[in-house]
């Protein structure tokens, strides 16, 4: 083991943070870049499903909340791309990877937002699941990512509370509004559980990631935590989850839940979700529509530099 | 009820609301991520202004209409926003030129109103004038960058300037509502030109000649784009009578 | 009330309504004037079918809902049209491929229904089957012309075929509503392929493999496009409660 | 005078029709082509203002009526372009003249349709004015145009009745609906009067056109006829025209009416109407979007011809 390797291992072992100036093994760098980029892509693509409701939000207050949330997501994307850049990644290349479909984003965003209740349920369940995943990442061994996650988690919690508050309002409303919420919960529950990734036995990289301390808990541990957290919230709200096998297990001191349709997850990840093509096509179109603007900005900066 | 005050404040509120609705529709479509953040920020400012102004207009009216009843339950011809703000965002050039023209107008008008007699309106204006000063500087920076960027960006910017310029006259067209309350923006045209012309010059863009000057927005006569904008904005609200969201 | 009959007829009516709404939106946008006339004609046929079917569904339901209450006062999730017909018309290729797939389906289904026990439905179907035979032949002609035209037209057509093919599976997905009344279209897939495959072959287009098969429309779960379509369609009607037009 | 010229003059004098095979003076040909082309362009552009309401028509019956009307207008455009082609004009070139702004269309279509009542008022007043203009053209000396006009006038009368019927329905409705109608009438009345063209003293080509029997009445005669016809219809409907000077003149046995703002007409014709740019831009876009289709159709036809 070289000195550099030793220093890396020691830093990890001591639970200290790796910083951009530190030497890291190529595998660590690659894994980290991929993880951060996918997270950044997810924030960017994640703007779309909710963003579609901004123009139609049913009150000005909800419009402002939703717009602020979508803005936060753009901000998250920005921090995260910056964190990836500290590892030598290039933002333009990462964008290219996204719009060409070579790099993935969270497949939850390939599901459609069909009603305004979806906005609330995304806040509650999808952001809730994201927080479960992300809170441990605030202790990621890679410093810039860990710091980005602290800020992001704070904002995500805020979004989650707002989503839940919207749902509480709707559940106090008309039958049509309550139906809208239950329908949205029915559609988002299983995809939310899939957000934690494949079951542990089918997740071969988990061990290395945990050794590197860029992952702190297994997929199944986090998924269980999310279920345990969500069930009482659903009860308080007055909705049910579409899972007849969901029930408290006194022995395990956890909720049991039914089997997840992993084929669906595979299908959606591999491109055949309800909205995959649209999400990527929209992103690609926005990128292409903006090309002349980015080129002009560069040309203008060059002119100014030449004058000086 | 002071009808002129209501009409006056509604115009300000409708301007901000329609501008916010247009800008908010661009979320996720900006040419770069930083700009997504900036545009959302501007849209949020405008939406905040709209909410404060519409709420105040409703209070002045005293008929129990709040911001949402005013935004979601009026028909198209009851909105008195200027034609400028409803113009479509055909490309980023149109978005920035519209913002330049509109934020320069808002900055001057809010500045005057912040020193006016109506304390509520003065307070809203004082808060807003800081926001629109940022919008204006953002629009100025992009106008210069794109006007004096590439050949294509110059062409697009000049097209946007030429197409939107006619709609700026309406901002300064006086009438009994403008004269009846607050500050009449008719007097601001020269100062507005004093802001806009140097920016266009620095951007190497031509300042169009003053010719066609369409009006109507202040009397509820809008362009054909407006029906779609209002229809989309109100669709969900109108589909559910009298519920809370 | 025969709930299954209502649900069955509503599906047919919603298919025709949504297809008509999409097609009607293309008025003035066709690639040539003759095609403006043809597309409007097809849209009118579909709209006529929708009106007859929705009227009949309302009668079967017996709750006093007429064609307009069913078209304008239902929420998105209450429409049970297939996902295929709500897909956007991104270009003329998409329009024609959608028409090919849909009219072949309609032709087979109406043919069966025209010989069915429900006399009202049989009469509507008998009238409609002639109309959709024309739609189908129109779509076939364009598919061949554009598939075997230029490189660009072939590329566009193949893209449209690939993108729309997955949505055709839903047309033939059986369930209790289809099995509960009239004729179950599940049995029509083979005959449908017998129409569509030779056309694609003559058009030198590849018939996609059967893979992804999204569903949901029949249960009111639509794609994100649908909300905009319904919102626009209903906007004016919803803005005026209980009036005649 | 040559034999050909003599034959032409005799045909006109005898009130017979000129047919495509007949020799005509170049001036007649040019005037006729321009008149027919502008009329065709007007039908095509005229599809837009009403077409915009098809997707939002407030009942399915009104949607069907409106769609059928817009379809008829496309059909009228077709006959008219065909009539122009019998004079050697090329449809592609005429289209080019339209979308490049070199040839005009009726400037009435540069006004916006702001509410659904506009659909009715366009039917009543705009189609009504068109009929006043066009009925005499059924006796145009140019046969193909005269025959096209017979069919077109029949359909236009149908449209006018439908428009009036819509307005009657709205006037029997709510106050909001009645206001909508009055507002639409206020906006369309003066532009409708302008549809008859400049006043006779400012219309230098009228004499030649009347001599050639391609025009049968002067602009002012037709305008007066339209006003006389419309006032009782407005009374029956319960709306007023926005003209304080409008009143019956017992001596003239006609309605007097106020002065027309000819500057506005000039402004709109010269490009500065509310919707000029949009109308042309939409037409251009439709034409350009359709280019690949037309090219492919030609390529396919060529392949088929080659095989045979």
From TrEMBL, chains A, D:
Q: What Gene3D superfamilies does this protein's entry cite?
A: 1.20.1260.10
Q: Which GO terms describe its biological process?
A: phenylacetate catabolic process
Q: What GO terms are given for molecular function?
A: phenylacetyl-CoA 1,2-epoxidase activity
| Coiled-coil region list | none
Domain of life according to the entry? Bacteria
The record's annotation in SUPFAM superfamilies points to: Ferritin-like (SSF47240)
GO cellular component terms? cytosol
| InterPro entries cross-referenced by the UniProt entry | Aromatic_CoA_ox/epox (IPR052703), Ferritin-like (IPR012347), Ferritin-like_SF (IPR009078), PaaA (IPR011881), PaaA_PaaC (IPR007814)
What NCBIfam families does its record include? PA_CoA_Oxy1
Spell out the protein name for this chain.
Answer: Ring-1,2-phenylacetyl-CoA epoxidase subunit PaaA
**Which lineage do the record's taxonomy fields give for this organism?**
Bacteria, Bacillati, Actinomycetota, Actinomycetes, Pseudonocardiales
From TrEMBL, chains B, C:
Q: Which Gene3D superfamilies match?
A: 1.20.1260.10
Q: InterPro entries recorded for this chain?
A: Aromatic_CoA_ox/epox, Ferritin-like, Ferritin-like_SF, PaaA_PaaC, PaaC
Designated name of the protein: Ring-1,2-phenylacetyl-CoA epoxidase subunit PaaC
Taxonomically, which superkingdom? Bacteria
The lineage, from the top, is:
Bacteria, Bacillati, Actinomycetota, Actinomycetes, Pseudonocardiales
Biological process (GO) annotations held by this record are: phenylacetate catabolic process
Q: Which NCBIfam families match?
A: PA_CoA_Oxy3 (TIGR02158)
Q: Name one GO cellular component term.
A: cytosol
């Amino acid at each position: 083991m070289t000195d550099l390797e030793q220093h890396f291992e020691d830093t990890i072992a001591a639970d200290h943070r790796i910083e951009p100036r530190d030497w890291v093994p190529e595998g660590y760098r690659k894994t980290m870049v991929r993880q951060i980029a996918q997270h950044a892509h997810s924030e960017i693509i994640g703007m779309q499903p909710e963003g579609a409701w901004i123009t139609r939000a049913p009150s000005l207050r909800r419009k402002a909340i939703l717009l602020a949330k979508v803005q936060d997501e753009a901000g998250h994307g920005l921090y995260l791309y910056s964190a990836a850049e500290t590892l030598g990644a290039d933002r333009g290349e990462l964008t290219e990877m996204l719009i060409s479909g070579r790099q993935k984003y969270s497949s939850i965003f390939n599901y459609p937002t069909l009603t305004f209740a979806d906005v609330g349920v995304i806040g509650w369940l999808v952001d809730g699941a994201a927080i479960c995943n992300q809170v441990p990442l605030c202790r990621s061994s890679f410093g810039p990512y860990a710091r980005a996650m602290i800020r992001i988690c704070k904002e995500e919690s805020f979004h989650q509370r707002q989503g839940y508050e919207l749902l509480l309002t709707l559940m106090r409303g008309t039958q049509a509004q309550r139906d809208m919420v239950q329908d949205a919960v029915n559609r988002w529950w299983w995809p939310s559980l899939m957000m934690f990734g494949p079951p542990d036995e089918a997740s071969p990289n988990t061990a290395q990631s945990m050794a590197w301390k860029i992952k702190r808990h297994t997929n199944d541990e986090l998924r269980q935590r999310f279920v345990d957290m969500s069930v009482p919230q659903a009860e308080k709200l007055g909705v049910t989850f579409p899972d007849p096998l969901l029930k408290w297990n006194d022995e395990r001191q956890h909720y049991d839940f039914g089997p997840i349709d992993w084929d669906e997850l595979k299908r959606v990840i591999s491109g055949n979700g309800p909205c995959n093509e649209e999400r990527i096509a929209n992103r690609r179109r926005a990128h292409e529509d903006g090309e002349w603007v980015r080129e002009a900005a560069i040309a203008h900066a060059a002119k100014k530099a030449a004058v000086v | 009820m002071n009808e002129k005050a209501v009409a006056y404040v509604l115009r300000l509120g409708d301007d901000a609301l329609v501008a916010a609705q247009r800008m908010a529709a661009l979320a996720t479509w900006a040419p770069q991520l930083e700009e997504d953040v900036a545009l959302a920020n501007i849209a949020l400012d405008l939406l905040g202004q709209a909410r404060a102004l519409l709420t105040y207009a409703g209070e002045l009216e005293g008929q129990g209409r709040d911001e949402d009843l005013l935004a979601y339950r009026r028909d198209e011809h009851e909105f008195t926003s200027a034609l400028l703000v409803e113009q479509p965002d055909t490309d980023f050039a149109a978005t920035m030129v519209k913002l330049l023209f509109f934020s320069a107008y808002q900055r001057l008008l809010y500045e005057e109103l912040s020193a006016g007699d109506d304390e509520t309106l003065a307070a809203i204006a004082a808060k807003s004038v800081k926001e629109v000063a940022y919008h204006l500087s953002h629009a100025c920076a992009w106008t210069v960058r794109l006007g004096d960027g590439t050949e294509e960006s110059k062409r697009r910017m000049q097209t946007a300037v030429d197409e939107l310029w006619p709609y700026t006259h309406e901002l300064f067209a006086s009438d009994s509502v403008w004269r009846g309350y607050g500050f009449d923006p008719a007097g601001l045209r020269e100062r507005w030109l004093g802001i806009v012309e140097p920016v266009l010059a620095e951007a190497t863009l031509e300042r169009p000649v003053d010719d066609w000057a369409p009006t109507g927005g202040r009397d509820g006569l809008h362009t054909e784009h407006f029906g779609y904008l209002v229809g989309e904005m109100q669709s969900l609200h109108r589909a559910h009578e009298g519920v809370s969201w």
